[in-house]
Amino acid sequence: MVDSAVIRARARWPRVIFAVSTVPAAMNGQPGGLAVRRKEAEDAAAALGAEMRFFDVGDYPLREAPEVVDRLVHVYREVAPTVVLTHTLADPYNGDHPAAARMALQARVLAQAIGYGAPGEPLGAPPVFFFEPHQPEQCDFRPDVLLDITPVFARKRKAMECLPAQEHMWEYYTDLAKRRGVQLRRNVGPNLGLPHNTMGEAYVRLYPQVTGVLS
Amino acid sequence: MVDSAVIRARARWPRVIFAVSTVPAAMNGQPGGLAVRRKEAEDAAAALGAEMRFFDVGDYPLREAPEVVDRLVHVYREVAPTVVLTHTLADPYNGDHPAAARMALQARVLAQAIGYGAPGEPLGAPPVFFFEPHQPEQCDFRPDVLLDITPVFARKRKAMECLPAQEHMWEYYTDLAKRRGVQLRRNVGPNLGLPHNTMGEAYVRLYPQVTGVLS
Amino acid sequence: MVDSAVIRARARWPRVIFAVSTVPAAMNGQPGGLAVRRKEAEDAAAALGAEMRFFDVGDYPLREAPEVVDRLVHVYREVAPTVVLTHTLADPYNGDHPAAARMALQARVLAQAIGYGAPGEPLGAPPVFFFEPHQPEQCDFRPDVLLDITPVFARKRKAMECLPAQEHMWEYYTDLAKRRGVQLRRNVGPNLGLPHNTMGEAYVRLYPQVTGVLS
Amino acid sequence: MVDSAVIRARARWPRVIFAVSTVPAAMNGQPGGLAVRRKEAEDAAAALGAEMRFFDVGDYPLREAPEVVDRLVHVYREVAPTVVLTHTLADPYNGDHPAAARMALQARVLAQAIGYGAPGEPLGAPPVFFFEPHQPEQCDFRPDVLLDITPVFARKRKAMECLPAQEHMWEYYTDLAKRRGVQLRRNVGPNLGLPHNTMGEAYVRLYPQVTGVLS
Amino acid sequence: MVDSAVIRARARWPRVIFAVSTVPAAMNGQPGGLAVRRKEAEDAAAALGAEMRFFDVGDYPLREAPEVVDRLVHVYREVAPTVVLTHTLADPYNGDHPAAARMALQARVLAQAIGYGAPGEPLGAPPVFFFEPHQPEQCDFRPDVLLDITPVFARKRKAMECLPAQEHMWEYYTDLAKRRGVQLRRNVGPNLGLPHNTMGEAYVRLYPQVTGVLS
Amino acid sequence: MVDSAVIRARARWPRVIFAVSTVPAAMNGQPGGLAVRRKEAEDAAAALGAEMRFFDVGDYPLREAPEVVDRLVHVYREVAPTVVLTHTLADPYNGDHPAAARMALQARVLAQAIGYGAPGEPLGAPPVFFFEPHQPEQCDFRPDVLLDITPVFARKRKAMECLPAQEHMWEYYTDLAKRRGVQLRRNVGPNLGLPHNTMGEAYVRLYPQVTGVLS
């Protein structure tokens, strides 16, 4: 299986294209069909206008290793993402998710270090967002950001449809986007006039938001 | 003592003037000098371009009562604030702070109800921010917003200086703004180029942030 | 509005009919139409084979008062429920929910006291379950029970349809039941062979489960 | 020392014999006497009607390694346990306990994966229970299950008595069972009529309970 | 029933006699026998060398009222306790315990206020300790202090024996003291050489410890 | 950079000199200048009357390895510290800090084991304190100890001044000591009469405090 984290991340947030490339990619845990899955992932990325990087770090379970982290540091330095999306740090249903997240976070911090031996400028401090797992409450996922994806939802849907083997997930994520959209409208200030069919995504921040305006 | 919540709230976020009026006001817990304190509070508010409302609900401890909540609902409906700032819901050093916060929050929800008997339009859902208490860790204050107040700090300082009896607090809050400013700069994305003397304030959100852009 | 807690509780768990009567009832927060709402609630209850008790304790916000608690104690003693369903103790969107829950819980403990002046036997210790709020993560709702409601879902749907003014909620709760059903199937042991269309409800326990068998 | 997790697990829950074999086994941290300890463990298991597996993965501290996890996956696939008992994930007094638990949990998830290379059917989703550590509050052990072990306590006691070197623990665990039994009786519903000498064990669930009946 | 908080508090910590008088006292929830219970409580207090204050605020449930808090403020000012012991703020089994604790804490803060109208000097900031409830984990009781009561345990036992109606509790608290004593010995530094029969009590602090030496 | 943990630890608590040697030392993450940094660290230690151990375990990120833990066990056995100071276990800004802390804690537990192959007596149970990170709230740092360092602050300042490259930190830590000193004075009992310029440090305990006196 191609790592769905990458695909979903792109699907969810197509306006910051390069950020997603910094999430650890392509852990193939199933025998056979890898080439097909890779192609699907690339199609989905293309639908979003994003680019795909495959790490091919091997079998399920995902091996957490310094070399993988180092390769991620190189991607961070090359791409200089403005945001990072990754899995939650807790997930009792899939140990690969926290492992991928730990490496994504460790590489981000190393990429910031002046002395780290990788080409490119030291990274700034791009904000980190955890995206929603299947069983959010079991993963300590308490959303502190509700993102309005109404204007880009059609593109996200198109990207999802590049993955025919996961057709049952298309409706699941469409329903989820509706539910988060309903919540978004209940949490919004008075002047936005959001439409009934608002579509949303929920995120958890790792670091405090930095802003010049409270809203 | 005039309720410092109001003053500090205005001082901290002068660009949304009317919001602060929705925070419960003017609990005088000390005999004598009330007129002087009231005048100081009005001067501080004026320095911020804000307006002051005194509720005069009586002595320390703050009495948590339906009538006070109802008066707050009226203010919400009249002012239609775009943000609400209030105390933390936990504070083992001062029970008046959580009591004020509970009333501010209850009134905000009631002001949203179509059926509530108070003039004006039903309130939208203005975001709520808890501001920083003196002993943040003991009040479960884990900042999720760092606000850059560099451009308005001089005005905040001027407002604080309207309270001569609290002179020792002037330096305290200036130091705090520096410390939060240092943290702000460490959490900021790569392109902002913040100056060395960045001044900051820390906040905790009650509700998830609603946004169209992750940043 | 008739208190939806009661209706939903019955709808969710029709096999223990009397238990729901111990949940605080009938808080009417809207002017007019009370008789209609009452009738709808009774119809919904009838669809479940349950009985309805109206407390008529007055307007929104719900008044938390010793007399209401005392009336609840009488109901507990009369009904001797084997389970109690109520709202979550935290809900930043609706203060009436925690208020109702606090009274339901206080009355339950008082009904257990031998010395309490109400007819009937002292209550045992019926387990307490919090049912799912609209924004579960903001209400500290981390499910520890997933209830299979597949065999009774049709009846729940019928009960919901007795509330025509809340038609938009019919689909919402049907979708939610599907989503919780999917999670239920992922958490189930090996031998149950649950069908694809499993419908579920999520709950949080207040007290530890007591059992003679681990499963 | 033979890993007490296995022994205690069997001792605690003798009615699901094979489940315990899935807990990581036999970490010998003390020089000498291993053969004696092994014999004692087998006697204790026999007293419970359970079977013992020794992994002999070496010295204290327990080495957390992919090969050990893989061997555990094989046991899961072979035994197909209906429940899993293991240590808490936090234990500041003994790092081997969380290490054993992490491997037990990782292996359980891998054993569920269709593509994992081990004989036998993919595992279902047996519920996981953490058993009680010596200093429960320091290990974030907040019981959500109280198991009535009155009918099998005599057998548990007999199993404990197979470990003469730990004689001081016999009384300790008997007292603990009494204390948990008292709590069990206070949390039980009205109709069970539990006797005064109820013996209990406390557990924490990792995953939500799946059930068709609320009780 | 005489409020056991007071009695136990004295029994547990006889060396700071007056502190216990600041805990809310004497809530009689049972008809008849009050005089007997009062006498027993006074005997137990005398066994500890402590003095008893009865508030007689009426029936179960404990009424949380400003007048009771005010009376407590007067006691604080009169006694000037150096420590305060009270119930946990969470207790799903007995709502009177948190109610008593809330009043004890509110009165303590008010007694510190210079402007509060009660005779005596403003109170300092005596540390607050929550003592152990019957079901500690359900009351969020995570001990951060283990008190060695070996030298005074005999006196505590004698005080408990002044309450013949609670004879079953004598062994319970003796066993508990042993269990906490075992934990105490496991957490102690290298040089104390504690005996095998160490008796202990567990507490949770509300405020940070203030000290001149780390130990 | 020489690991600042060691330096700060010594600087903060000079009266227990040998304890700091048990914290993992000397992780050099920057090219060049190591000799200079080493010299500065030794000067700072000397200013405190403490001794420095360098582990030279290599580059940033800190490698978490059994050999490093084993070397730490040897230091524990040799020094027999009465307290241990280390980093917080959570730090989203610097992964080396939790890694160092995990090794310090694992080694401490192993040093207690009778069977562990290292010279010297088995360690007792020295209390563990986490010292304050730069962004305490993001590191789950909720102080439960406030240490009065007024009498030794001058020496701490002198030690800091041995690190000229970190001059901006001198004021930072001096300001922090003032702020913690203010909090210390607000949490102190009535009879201590602390001066206005009290300097403090905040700590979090890992294990419960063991004491013979509540204060």
Automatic annotation (TrEMBL), chains A, B, C, D, E, F:
Pfam families: PIG-L (PF02585)
Alphabetized UniProt keyword annotations: Lyase, Zinc
EC number: 4.2.1.83
InterPro entries per UniProt: GlcNAc_PI_deacetylase-related (IPR003737), LmbE-like_dom_sf (IPR024078)
GO MF term (any one): 4-oxalmesaconate hydratase activity
SUPFAM superfamilies membership: LmbE-like
Secretion signal span: none
Highest taxon in the source lineage: Bacteria
Protein name: 4-oxalomesaconate hydratase
UniProt source species: Kibdelosporangium banguiense
